[in-house]
Amino acid sequence: MYSQKAILLIRNITPMHVGSGNELGIVDLPIQREGHTDFPKIEASSLKGSLREAFENKLGEDNLDIHLVFGYDEDADANQKIKTILNNTEYAGAVSFSDARILLFPVKTPKGVFAWITCPYALKRFDEDLKIAGLKKLNLPKELNNIQNNPETCIVASNNLLINHKMILEEYSFTASVDTNFAQNLYNYLKIDDLNNKLVIVSDEIFTSFVKLSTEIITRTKINNSTGTVKEGALFNEEYLPAESVLYLLVFTAPIFNTVKSNFTDDLSVMKFIKDNLPAYIQIGGNATLGKGIVKANFMEV
Amino acid sequence: MSSKLDNGRASFAFQCADTTKQLSYAKEYKQYSKKLPMMIKTNGLAATFAFMLSKDQNKNEGKAYHKLGDDILYWLKTCNTTNDIFQNKSTFKDLVQDVINLDSFKYNLITQETINFLLWLRRFTEGLIND
Description:
- The structure holds 2 protein chains of 2 kinds.
- Chain A is of the alpha+beta class.
- Chain A has 9 helices and 14 strands.
- In chain B, helix 2 runs antiparallel to helix 3, helix 2 packs antiparallel against helix 7 and helix 3 packs across helix 4.
- Chain B starts with a helix and ends with a helix.
- At the A-B interface, strand 8 and helix 8 of A face helix 2 and helix 7 of B.
């Protein structure tokens, strides 16, 4: 049973492409999205691979602890040695990750360059996840339902965001009410600088449309070296979750399933291993050689 | 009309592609129907519509954009979720005038609907119109 819980925050430093394959829609290579909301997500399996790689880069592929915590990888270096120690290879990893969910999405604004938007649904879900992780619940603003009933309005963290009492997000404008307390409250969880100058809560529908239409699209091509022209069929576009997007995921740990326990006496020591060894910056998703998918990762402490 | 939204879009898009294939500007129509969804995503609906309006209707290019505009208008007038907004509009120019005065929520709804329709149109022009 996975009994230890924590929330891992992820903030994009560079744009991220965690792909879902080919699609018949607007972009050739879209990012992963949730089935029921169309919000961007990172699938747990993609995350687990990236996180394991981050640990392997730090501690080495043949580190026994990684094999115990994440599960045995027979392709890892020096696997014979590990295999011998582990006796058998049939056991589950002791750490479990949920899909990463979007919490804050950056949108261009004429004032302050960009704003972090979120919506009642994303906030309520985050609040519920805080409860699952055993953390203190958020104090959600009372006006949340008002925006839901009236999508022309939004809640902003600061007067600094407004032009003529209006909040402008890309080509849309909203009537704003100011709530400085909530941004401060959320800052205590996320520790993201400038949140109190950039937080905007819009309705669920408006949020959905921004996360669908305001992602970055990059057109890629390949030039044929001998002719200097575009190689046939090599013009395609890719979707990226922009830099400054903020996501989070639940992390659970269990006692080690293998009979070999190494230093791990219980589920708590497994969680400690994860928390102590997680690098501050990790790479998630495709196009690593183009500098994509570099994120800042940290466990939330409340 | 079908009660299923996407089927409605699909069958109307098929009709549009099918009636356009004999016209002199069919090739342009196909090319632009492919291009428009991305143009809307990157520039916004109003800017894209303004661009379409700016094209000279005496040329094939303008004719194709004009026909695309009419097809979009006809779809928005028929479709369940948007028909009440554009009921009395008869030309694409009227539609554009209306779109730039919409509130954010409706503007967003129209944007999504237009993109969804164009995605179907793009699929059918691909199959029905030869280069």
